[in-house]
Amino acid sequence: MTWLQLLYYVFLTGLGLVMVYPLIWLLFASFKPNAEIFGSIDLFPKEVVWDSFRKGWEGSGQYTFGTFFLNTFILVIPTVVFTVASSLLVAYGFARFTFPLKKLFFALMISTLFLPAAVTMIPRFMLFGQLGWLNSYYPFIVPALCGGGPFFIFLLIQFLRGLPKELDESAQMDGGHSFTILIRILLPLSKAALFSAGIFQFIWTWNDFFGQLIYINSVKKFTISLALRMSLDVAASVEWNRILAMALAAMMPSVLLYFFAQKYFVEGIATTGLKG
To answer: What does residue 208 show for φ and ψ, rounded to 5 degrees?
Structure first.
């Protein structure tokens, strides 16, 4: 190993520690009392509070954080699955078929990327209110079922365009129809793009606060992000170690998903979606 390589690894290690330090501080701060959290810059607690995770999980009302985690999974998992599935279908149509007004429809789909969320917030709220979907998870799940999102559609279109069309032609010569080609040939080869879309949508939906705050108003249906905010309002004196403990617990699904999925993501990108 040369000195240049050594300096390179030392620099990357130091940069990685800087990026991870907030998470490390969050972990140790969850074991500190309020006086230490706001009155000391020391990383390690002088007085250890051992029950912050247990009391934080119990919550401060009739529902525990177990209920909020379950609600979040009930909202997030169908949203992610339907987003990936519907986006793949739409992207397959744009990438592999020719039909009238294709360029116009593609331009309209891409143009929705430039619409700020504030522009569509009120019309969506009024529409979902007329459908009776307020205080439910339908405003998140149903749109995911009906086309996913333009970002994921565009991502999958670009990926499918990179796959050789000779694969489709070979399958057609063997008697395969369009749906068979998608499921048996293109779907396995699109694993990298599908994992990317799934990870993005999972993290965005899991961490969403504003959208869930608009449509969900019953504590029984609160997600983890709403429950964390509610924990700051239910008591006159906030025990911050419990809030930080639950914030750390709320981050773990996203972190674990990334670490478990990165193997397939990196492998798919390295081989451009093709396996020999």
So the answer is: -65, 130
- In sequence order, which residues have a C-beta less than 8 Å from that of residue 40 and are 6 or more positions away? 32, 46
Q: Please report the pLDDT score of residue 273 as a whole number.
A: 43
Q: Which of 219, 82, 89 is nearest to 139 (CA)?
A: 82
pLDDT score for 4: 84
Calculate the dihedral angle through the C-alpha atoms of 144, 146, 152, 156, rounding to the nearest 10 degrees. Answer: 130
Give 231's pLDDT tier (boundaries 50, 70, 90).
confident
* 15 domain residue, yes or no: no
Distance CA(55)–CA(174), nearest Å, equals 62
Poorest-pLDDT segment among 91-100, 137-146, 216-225, 263-272? 263-272
Query: Residue 234 domain-assigned?
Result: yes
Does 69 fall in a domain? Answer: yes
Q: Which domain holds residue 211?
A: 53-270
CATH number of the domain encompassing residue 88: 1.10.3720.10
What is the pTM assigned to this prediction?
A: 0.87
Q: Is the pLDDT of residue 274 over 50?
A: no
Asked whether residue 3 is assigned to any structural domain, the reply reads: no
